[in-house]
Design goal:
Distance between the termini: 22 Å
CATH superfamily of the largest domain: Nucleoside Triphosphate Pyrophosphohydrolase
Number of strands: 13
Largest sheet: 7 strands, mixed
Number of domains: 2
CATH topology of the largest domain: Nucleoside Triphosphate Pyrophosphohydrolase
CATH class of the largest domain: Alpha Beta
Structural class: alpha+beta
Shape: globular
Strand content: 25-35%
CATH architecture of the largest domain: Alpha-Beta Complex
Number of helices: 7
Radius of gyration: 18 Å
Length: 268
Amino acid sequence: MADVAKARPASTILLLRDSTGPDGNGEIEVFMMVRHYEIDFNSGALVFPGGSVDAGDHEIAGNPDLFAGGEGHDAETLGFRIAAIRETFEESGILLAKPRGSTALVDAKRAGEIETLHRAALCDGKITFQKILADNGMLLSLDGLVPYAHWITPEGMPKRFDTWFFLAAAPPEQLGAHDGKESTDSIWVSPREALAGGDSGRFKLPFPTTRNLIKLGKHRTVKDALDAARQSRIVTVMPVMTRLNGGRQLRIPAEAGYDGELFEVGAA
């Protein structure tokens, strides 16, 4: 039997805002990015910001002076949450942090200054996220993250991730932008529009992204989505591939809350 690749810990954030459209249609919007076509995982796909947990995230987890809202969480859980915020800053420029001594998220002007000074250097490995936080008097807003889903890449895949999805209300007026390297475009989009784009071929949507967009689209406001997530039980999903009548199907736990258990994903 071939060795099963170990699933790498990873985190993803669904950054949410209420619709800013002129028609006031009441749809929730989520920040998404198009992965670069040369990236070896989900190339060209429309995805939420996120990536692997790294050693620097665990170093921050060991320094409670750099985050707020970490009470009651073990080191592993802290690592997932810290990675989610760091990756979001790297990939979108949006910073989910509070100035030391403040209960409010950093304002857009100050966040923009920090991004301009440090984002590129962080992505290039020339500075650590820990140093950025310490030098700018910032505390990561871990209490702003609401656990939403937990997906593990199926066994048999060459690259596997153990990924926690979080919901977070986007900081006011922090609009976000792709980095031009790992991602080539970015958009604030309603779940309805993203899913329609997946159906039409405008967007390439990975299976977990599709299911989480459908789930998110049941809520009309950010508050509704966050409240529902806080009240929900998270069931770990590791899809199992099956083949039937020339097609491929993925089986996931029915109790995970994705309106089904067996989903067709194309020809074998």
